[in-house]
Design goal:
Number of helices: 12
Structural class: alpha/beta
Strand content: 15-25%
Mean pLDDT: 91
Oligomer: single chain
Strand order of the largest sheet: 2-1-3-4-5-11
Shape: elongated
C-alpha cells in the first residue's frame, strides 16, 4: 500500500490499513500496539514493521478514554534557553525513558499568567502526572494542580509548601552556606549582582539566606545590582564594571548565577585584578559549560540532574502504584574553585 498524501483533509491511517499490510486482524494489530494479549513474537514483529512502513501512529487519546489519562507527563519550567533547566529535563528523560511515560515540556518565561496557561493546556490533555518548577504559583495554578487528580511534583526548591510532592534544595540554606564560606576566608566588603527580584523566587531566597548570615556577623552588603532578561557573559561584564567603578574597595563579588559570574571573572582578569587575593568571586549552579574558563569559578551545585531524576521517579512510582518519598530535599554542595582564598 503506498503512503497516503499528507494534504489537509486526507483521511488518517487506521488499524485496518495496518492489518491489511500485516495480513492479520484489526484486533491483533490493536493488541500489539497496546502491548496487550497473547501474540506471538513473529506476528508482533510483522505488525510493528507494517506500522513503521506505513507511518502509522496510534491514537493514544482514544485508547486512554477508559482510564481518562494519557501516558504524558507535563513538565513546566521557566525557560528553555536558560542552561540550568536542560539538565533537569535530562534527568527527567533518563528515568521516564525506562517507562511508558513520555515527558512534554512547556516554558513560562518566568510569568505567572503564562504559567497558568501552560498548566491549563497540559492538564486539558489529562496527563498521568505533572512536574512544575518552583513552589510559588498563582492561586489559579495551585488550584488546577491540587484538583488535577494526578501526581504533582514541584522541583528546584525546598523552601515552601508543596501542592503534593516536592524535590529540590533549600535556596535559603545555599545562600547562608556561601556567605559563611566567604566570611571564613576573610572577605568583608561584598557586592552582590543578580536577577531582578521578586520575579526569580529562588535567587531571592538565596539572597535572603546570604544576607541573614552577613547581618549576624555585623557585615552588610556594600551594594546590590539587579538586571532583567537573560543571563550572559556580557551582562556579567557590564555589571561588574559598574559595581567596581562605584566601589573600588570591594573585596568580594557574589553573583546569583554562574553565567554572569563568568562574565565578571573575565572582566576582572582583563583588568589585572589579583584573584582571589585582592578580590574573590562566587556564582551559583555549577554550570559545566564554564569549565574552560581561565580560572574555575567558586560555586554551588544545585543538583539539577539529580532533582530531575528524583521527580520523574516519584511520578513513575505513583503511576505504578508503588510507594515512594513525597518530599526530597538535597544539599547544594560547595566548590571553592580558584576564585576564593583558602579558609583561615
Amino acid at each position: 500500500m503506498p503512503p497516503r498524501s499528507n494534504e489537509p483533509g486526507t483521511p488518517q491511517l487506521t488499524l485496518r490499513d495496518v492489518a491489511e499490510v500485516a495480513k492479520v486482524s484489526e484486533m491483533t494489530v490493536s493488541r500489539v500496539l497496546r502491548n496487550r494479549g497473547d501474540v506471538s513474537q513473529t506476528t508482533r514483529q510483522r505488525v510493528m514493521e507494517a506500522a513503521r512502513t506505513l507511518g502509522y501512529v496510534p491514537n493514544k487519546i482514544a485508547g486512554a478514554l477508559a482510564s481518562n489519562r494519557v501516558n504524558l507527563v507535563g513538565v513546566v519550567i521557566p525557560s528553555l534557553s536558560n542552561m540550568v533547566f536542560p539538565q533537569v529535563l535530562a534527568g527527567i528523560s533518563d528515568v521516564l525513558d525506562e517507562t511508558p511515560l513520555q515527558p512534554v515540556f512547556g516554558a513560562t518565561h518566568y510569568g505567572q499568567d503564562r504559567e497558568e496557561e501552560v498548566i491549563y493546556e497540559m492538564l486539558s490533555w489529562r496527563p498521568s502526572g505533572m512536574i512544575v518548577a518552583g513552589v510559588e504559583h498563582s492561586e489559579a495554578s495551585r488550584a488546577m494542580l491540587a484538583n488535577s487528580g494526578v501526581p504533582v511534583v514541584e522541583v528546584m526548591d525546598a523552601d515552601g509548601d508543596p501542592v503534593d510532592a516536592m524535590v529540590g534544595i533549600s535556596h535559603k540554606a545555599a545562600g547562608a552556606r556561601i556567605a559563611k564560606e566567604i566570611l571564613a576566608r576573610g572577605y568583608r566588603k561584598i557586592g552582590f549582582m543578580g536577577t531582578k527580584m521578586p520575579d526569580d523566587h529562588r535567587a531571592r531566597k538565596r539572597l535572603q539566606g546570604f544576607e541573614s548570615v552577613l547581618n549576624e556577623a555585623g557585615v552588610g552588603l556594600v551594594d546590590r545590582l539587579f538586571y532583567s532578561g537573560g543571563s550572559g557573559l556580557g551582562k556579567g561584564r557590564e555589571m561588574t564594571q559598574d559595581i567596581l567603578e562605584r566601589h573600588s574597595d570591594l573585596d568580594f563579588l557574589y553573583y546569583s548565577n554562574d553565567m554572569i559570574g563568568a562574565g565578571g571573572l573575565l572582566y576582572c582578569l582583563e583588568k589585572g585584578y589579583d584573584i582571589p587575593g585582592d578580590i574573590g568571586m562566587a556564582g551559583f549552579n555549577a554550570v559545566e559549560l564554564l569549565d574552560g574558563l581561565p580560572m574555575r569559578l567558586a560555586t554551588m551545585d544545585s543538583k539539577r540532574l539529580e532533582i530531575g531524576r528524583a521527580a520523574a521517579g516519584i511520578i513513575a512510582s505513583r503511576v505504578a502504584g508503588e510507594p515512594c518519598d513525597q518530599i526530597v530535599t538535597m544539599d547544594a554542595s560547595f566548590d571553592q574553585g580558584q576564585t576564593m582564598r583558602p579558609a583561615t
